[in-house]
């Protein structure tokens, strides 16, 4: 029986919370600004309150500017003051470290990866609050399906302002949340959302860690699928987090810019992946969206006019994404890409990371 078939069966009898697992997990949170302190504190507390506790919580403090030398010292000091001595009421070991590589988000993730020791590494954004069973739900998938290598969870929007009626549900990816085209139950998927993703530690090391700053989640998903098979990357919507959506991300300006610039930069990201990169998921998404106005028109006639507006905005989003992709192709052809600062871990760093776990096991 194929893994896909087994997963489809399992979705009808999904593992209930409370099932024991022999797998261990570390949680990683990357952060860079004091402006999100309250959200960061919420994220940390949610990681410490899991029904299955992580062995380590690794908080990596960076900066909006790239480079290991750029660190938000005020944020670092406050993190150390708040969590530097661990928590008396929690068995979780808390590490607070600074970014050690040249890029931004991807470099912070690689910094944390070298400090992990557990079987599974779960990544949580600093503006997301994990449900109490978030980690347990992910580990249940790994326990049930040994061939699954990466598991994503559902980031559900936590709005800072009322959601506009025109905003299409297919485009909640714009602010890093679960969108309508994703599976509504446990199933393979091509793209995990970095807000709430996880993977087996050995698999992340096998692909050399993280190779991107802007598209760290997409890059990891594609590289793992290329190495281990498409069914090895799965989405478990029951592993939920609440992802903060500030008011400025609910504007038309943010919407169209995100559609354009994300897809412009994807061109370079796919090029960096080599054989692992493909735009199949993007093409299927665009096809589904372009079929949307017809049923939306029927809905409008039957008393739901907002659906037609959403469908038309979604079509405009696809058009802006296509324009971005064409612009990215032109940039790539002319050699005008931005410098890639996060390029993965070296072979020596991967060996060091593997040796660190062996040393712990032998101790």
Automatic annotation (TrEMBL):
Highest taxon above the source species: Bacteria
Residue stretches spanning the membrane: 308-327
Glycosyltransferase 2-like domain residues: 27-204
Keywords on record: Membrane, Transmembrane, Transmembrane helix
One family name in Pfam for this protein: Glycos_transf_2
InterPro entries in the cross-refs: Glyco_trans_2-like, Glycosyltransf_2, Nucleotide-diphossugar_trans
Name used for this protein in its record: Glycosyltransferase 2-like domain-containing protein
Species of origin: Mycobacterium cookii
Lineage: Bacteria, Bacillati, Actinomycetota, Actinomycetes, Mycobacteriales
């Amino acid at each position: 029986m194929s893994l896909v078939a087994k997963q489809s069966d399992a979705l009808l009898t999904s593992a209930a919370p409370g099932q024991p697992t022999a797998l261990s997990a570390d949680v990683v949170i990357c952060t860079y600004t004091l402006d999100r302190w309250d959200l960061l504190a919420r994220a940390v507390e949610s990681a410490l309150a899991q029904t299955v506790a992580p062995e380590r919580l690794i908080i990596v403090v960076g900066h909006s500017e790239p480079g290991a030398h750029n660190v938000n010292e005020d944020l670092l000091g406050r993190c150390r003051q708040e969590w530097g001595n661990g928590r008396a009421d929690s068995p979780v070991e808390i590490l607070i470290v600074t970014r050690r590589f040249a890029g931004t988000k991807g470099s912070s993730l690689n910094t944390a990866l070298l400090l992990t020791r557990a079987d599974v590494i779960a990544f949580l954004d600093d503006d997301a609050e994990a449900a109490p069973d978030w980690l347990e739900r992910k580990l249940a998938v790994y326990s049930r399906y040994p061939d699954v290598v990466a598991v994503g969870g559902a980031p559900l929007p936590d709005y800072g302002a009322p959601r506009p009626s025109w905003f299409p549900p297919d485009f909640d990816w714009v602010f890093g949340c679960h969108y309508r085209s994703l599976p509504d139950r446990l199933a393979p998927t091509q793209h995990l959302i970095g807000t709430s993703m996880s993977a087996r530690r050995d698999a992340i090391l096998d692909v050399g860690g993280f190779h991107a700053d802007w598209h760290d989640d997409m890059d990891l998903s594609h590289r793992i699928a290329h190495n281990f098979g498409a069914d090895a990357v799965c989405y478990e919507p029951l592993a939920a987090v609440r992802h903060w959506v500030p008011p400025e991300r609910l504007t038309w300006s943010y919407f169209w810019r995100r559609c354009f610039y994300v897809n412009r930069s994807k061109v370079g990201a796919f090029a960096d992946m080599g054989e692992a990169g493909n735009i199949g998921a993007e093409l299927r998404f665009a096809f589904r969206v372009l079929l949307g106005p017809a049923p939306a028109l029927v809905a409008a006639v039957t008393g739901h006019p907002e659906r037609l507006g959403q469908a038309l905005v979604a079509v405009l989003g696809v058009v802006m994404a296509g324009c971005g992709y064409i612009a990215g192709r032109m940039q790539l052809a002319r050699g005008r890409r931005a410098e890639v600062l996060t390029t993965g871990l070296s072979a020596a760093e991967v060996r060091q990371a593997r040796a660190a776990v062996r040393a712990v096991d032998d101790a």
